[in-house]
Write a structure and sequence with these properties.
The complex is a heterodimer. Chain A is α/β, with parallel strands linked by helices. Among the domains of chain A are: 10-104, Fumarate Reductase Iron-sulfur Protein, Chain B, domain 2 (Orthogonal Bundle), CATH 1.10.1060.10; 310-427, Rossmann fold (3-Layer(aba) Sandwich), CATH 3.40.50.1860. Chain A is built from 24 helices and nine strands. Mean pLDDT of chain A is 89; it is low at 134-157. Helices cover 36% and strands 20% of the residues of chain B. Chain B has helices at 4-14, 23-27, 50-63, 115-123, 141-147, 154-157, 193-196, 230-242, 255-264, 285-301, 313-324, 326-331, 349-363, 389-408, 427-430, 433-446; strands at 19-20, 43-45, 67-70, 87-90, 97-101, 106-109, 127-128, 164-170, 176-180, 205-212, 214-215, 219-227, 249-254, 275-283, 306-309, 336-339, 367-372, 377-384. A seven-stranded antiparallel β-sheet of chain B has the order 15-12-14-13-17-18-16, sandwiched between helices. Classes of the chains: A alpha/beta, B alpha+beta. The interface between A and B is medium-sized, with 29 and 38 residues.
Chain lengths: 429, 463
């Protein structure tokens, strides 16, 4: 709770230039995936920004409706990318979520999940496993992975295609230090940040990435102390206090490493966002910024840092002879500006045909907890993505964000479109 | 506040989700594209059919509740602000393109269709709808009819009203009236469609629109001319027009915008240039080639320091993007930006620009302007701060001087934005009093209870 002496709008005020930059032209209405479905002004960046201005002016209060409108944003950044004034309204929205949490606290069960469960990695893993026992009873088993793990329990029963939890987690499968096999010279040593999804649901992907890096002369360290990136906590829910604890844990876990590789666009971008949103002291600011610089998306690492030759990209058995299209995760394309590297990798693979989908960087509508709160809306946004995928005639749609991938699996199955969803690294041998 | 009973009646008409009442949601319908105007409605209704619009208006008329029709709220006149509270009747959910007829060269749309969505659908069929207000990414076609909007293309192709063939309008009493048709020629009685085109939602609510289309021009060529003197740029436009060439677009950008754009998104513009003219010729490939050569020649003879002819579509797109970012460059520049919309006869453009310089010097206010030089429509802006009462008042006086100057040159108060709230203080000076009175009488006939967008266009008489 906020003490009377504290500034009620401390976080929003840090982004005052974004808040005031909007000159209400309304161009964002054309690009916002949420507005495009709902066609009401409170959905779009301009409306949300004006609502926050209204709060600061004293015209509005912290109400259920306020929190609801604030929550209904995927943070896809399409508004900012197309804004003539380059106003970053998602910054303001995240900050406003944080001020709301400080003023009003978190609601059950999110307070338990975010503040207590997510920061405790082992316990969280066990809860997920416990839940997985029930999954077989309540839901049909499907291919792929579950929806956002932090929301696993509340996700139950909403009728989506929720796939299986791995029998063994990645952290139980591999050691901390993974050295290149004998005969391969060690060129570099990197830390591997495994998002919750890779750890608990896609351990084989994690194992595959470690093997791939090892074979290309990269020693991979997987610190067991690492935890959740915190995206659902500080970006989604605005709980900066808990987010800071998670940030400190991760920064410390990777202290001695020069690079931190991540296979999840959301995690990558969240780790880099620590400095922007969570740095409350000069020490944290420095530590978070330094950490953020070390974090690399896997495709960015392979192309820009490791500079692998095209011959390093050989097709996996499942990719061979297939037509492949790429979905840009918002957190990779607009948040981090990474669009050419994954395409370069796919195009380098022999015996794989690349085809670009229309509006490849359009949000898939997952956005973590957003899809739990607003499942119907999330599905509508995803259906546009399904149409785009269908139009390419691709056999496989690849991405680099387990969140997007879950959404794509669910949406393609729901629409009965037989296109396989894969992580970009699964294309590689 | 409206009675609970009325709200539930509105819900019954339009559906529960189509009626917004929370303070947070009302706040989102309290503003438009202007900097300072704002007023909260009591309720927002988002109908999906003309029948629903009719029932809402009937209910409002019976209970004398103000109704402000609204599209996407991108207008810059205060026109869609519910200055008297009441109902905001928002058409954004009526967004179906009902028909595109390539043989008739017509299209019929619902009012909430976004102009760019419409343009995209037309482009697929090689068709073209010229009116291009620079809010095309947000604005609804209904809104462009109500505001009789214009844009860069209007030099050659005219404004919105020249494309309206048919309208369906719901009157204040709820009657759904059909006007015009789908033929290009139609001489049946008074041109009543024109009454609703540009009426800013004060006479009826537009629920269906039939528009005239053109085939997409086969070729186009973009040119950019750099001037050391703003008035010389204005003179170049007059010279061009007098020579018999009518380019598709002739846009004017001043040094302030050039520098701001270079700051925001560097694209290699000459930051020391006093003015840029951005010109596009279009038509058949042969005609475009001949016209472009003629335009380049005239620009050079008129004192252009440099003329760039876009080598490809990419370069052309960069220049036009710069133009459409122009207003963002301006609006972000100060707390309060008074951006106006005067138009002068084309042959008075250079003189007008010189007089603006004099006003700027005398008043001490920097006057920024960009606009559609080809049709004499400029958007002079004064940067000020409404919180500084003394300065703001002086800024208002300076703007009045600009209006007076434009009027004295045979110009008009508003070229394309409409009067709304923003310019109503000046209307009396810009209109024949008998004509103004006639407007009020027409309003009284069509909307006797004054429920439709009350408080707009003319100032209310103080009682």
């Amino acid at each position: 709770m906020v003490k009377a002496t504290e500034d009620r709008y401390e976080q929003i005020k840090r982004f005052e230039s974004d808040l005031s930059q909007c000159m209400k032209c309304g161009f964002c209405t054309f690009f916002c995936p949420v507005y495009q479905e709902e066609r009401i002004e409170p959905s779009v960046a301009r409306g949300k920004n004006m609502m926050i201005r209204g709060l600061l002016a004293g015209d509005l209060e912290y109400t259920k409706e306020y929190a609801g409108r604030l929550n209904k944003c995927t943070l896809c950044m399409t508004c900012t990318a197309n804004c003539p004034a380059k106003a970053n309204i998602p910054n303001v929205i995240v900050a406003a979520r944080a001020d709301t949490v400080r003023a009003k606290g978190l609601k059950f069960p999110y307070n338990i999940i975010y503040r207590w469960l997510l920061p405790r990695r082992t316990l969280f893993g066990n809860v997920v496993r416990f839940a997985s026992w029930f999954q077989g009873i309540f839901l049909p088993k499907t291919e792929g992975t579950i929806r956002h793990l932090s929301m696993f329990l509340s996700a139950l029963g909403k009728g989506r295609n929720i796939p299986q939890i791995a029998p063994r987690f990645l952290r139980q499968m591999v050691p901390v230090v993974n050295k290149p096999p004998s005969g391969v010279k060690t060129r570099m040593k990197v830390g591997y940040f495994t998002g919750c999804m890779t750890d608990f649901v896609l351990p084989d992907l994690g194992k595959h990435i470690i093997d791939f890096l090892n074979r290309n002369g990269v020693e991979v360290v997987m610190p067991k102390e690492q935890g959740c990136c915190g995206a659902p906590v500080f970006l989604g829910a605005g709980d900066f206090d808990t987010g800071r604890k998670m940030a400190d844990t991760n920064v410390k876990a990777f202290e001695d490493l020069d690079y931190v590789i991540s296979d999840c666009a959301t995690c990558t971008s969240a780790l880099k966002d620590y400095a922007k949103f969570l740095a409350d002291t000069p020490e944290r600011k420095e530590a978070y910024a330094k950490f953020g610089d070390k974090v690399k998306d896997i495709s960015q690492f392979l192309v820009d840092v490791l500079k692998l030759p095209a011959s390093a990209y050989q097709p996996s058995a499942q990719a061979k002879g297939k037509k492949v299209t790429w979905h840009d995760p918002c957190h990779l394309s607009r948040h981090l500006g990474i669009t050419s590297q994954p395409r370069q990798i796919i195009k380098s693979i022999p015996d794989v045909e690349y085809v670009e989908m229309p509006n490849a960087d359009r949000c898939c509508g997952m956005a973590g907890t957003f899809s739990i709160y607003y499942y119907d809306l999330s599905k509508q946004i995803a259906d546009k993505k399904v149409e785009a995928i269908k139009s390419t005639g691709a056999d496989i749609v690849v991405s680099s964000c387990p969140g997007c991938e879950i959404q794509l699996i669910d949406s393609l199955l729901r629409n009965k479109v037989p296109v396989k969803v894969m992580h970009i690294m699964e294309l590689l041998k | 506040m409206l009675e609970k009973k009325l709200i539930s009646q509105l819900r019954k008409i339009a559906g529960k989700d189509a009626v917004l009442t929370s303070k947070e949601d009302l706040n989102a319908y309290s503003y438009d594209g202007t900097t300072t105007w704002a007023h909260m409605p009591d309720v927002v209704v988002l109908p999906t059919t003309a029948e629903q619009v009719s029932q809402v208006l009937k209910l409002a008329d019976e209970n004398k509740i103000p109704v402000t029709p609204r599209g996407a709220g991108t207008n810059v006149s205060g026109g869609s602000i519910p200055i008297k509270g009441g109902i905001v009747l928002c058409t954004t959910k009526m967004n179906k393109i009902l028909n595109i007829n390539k043989t008739n060269l017509t299209a019929t749309v619902e009012p909430g269709v976004v102009l760019q969505d419409f343009n995209n659908a037309l482009a697929e069929q090689g068709l073209f709808y010229p009116p291009d207000p620079q809010s095309f990414l947000g604005c609804t076609i209904g809104g462009t009819i109500a505001e009789n909007a214009g844009g860069p293309y209007c030099v050659k192709y005219g404004v919105t009203k020249q494309y309206v063939l048919g309208l369906e309008v719901v009157l204040a009493n709820g009657y759904i009236m059909k006007l015009g048709g789908v033929t290009v020629k139609n001489r049946t009685g008074y041109e009543l469609m024109m009454l609703f085109t540009g009426a800013e939602g004060t006479l009826g609510v537009i629920t269906k629109i039939t528009l005239r289309l053109l085939p997409m021009p086969l070729a186009n060529q973009t040119m950019m001319a750099i001037f050391d003197d703003m008035a010389a740029g204005g003179q170049a436009v007059s010279n061009m027009m007098a020579s018999g060439v009518v380019p598709a677009k002739v846009e004017f950008v001043d040094n302030f915008v050039i520098r701001r754009i270079e700051e925001m998104t560097p694209m290699g513009l000459p930051v020391d240039a006093k003015a840029l003219l951005l010109i596009q010729a279009d038509g058949s490939p042969a005609a475009v080639e001949a016209e472009s050569a003629q335009i380049v020649d005239i620009l050079k003879k008129s004192g252009a320091k440099e003329v760039r002819v876009a080598k490809d579509a990419d370069e052309a797109a960069r220049y036009w993007k710069m133009r459409s970012a122009g207003f963002a460059a301006v609006f972000g520049a100060a707390h309060t930006v008074m951006a106006e919309d005067v138009a002068v006869p084309r042959d008075k453009l250079a003189e007008f620009i010189r007089k603006l310089d004099e006003i700027s010097e005398k008043s001490g206010f920097f006057i920024q302007y960009l606009g559609h030089a080809g049709d004499g429509n400029l958007h002079p802006s004064i940067f000020t701060d409404i919180r500084n009462k003394e300065e703001f008042e002086r800024a208002q006086q300076t703007m009045e001087e600009i209006f007076e100057t434009a009027l004295s040159l045979g110009g008009v108060l508003s070229g394309e934005h409409g009067i709304g709230l923003e310019k109503q203080r000046f209307l009396k000076r810009a209109m024949d009093p008998v004509a103004l009175n006639l407007m009020k009488k027409i309003k009284a006939i069509l909307d006797p209870n004054h429920i439709l967008n009350p408080g707009k266009i003319w100032e209310e008489e103080r009682v």
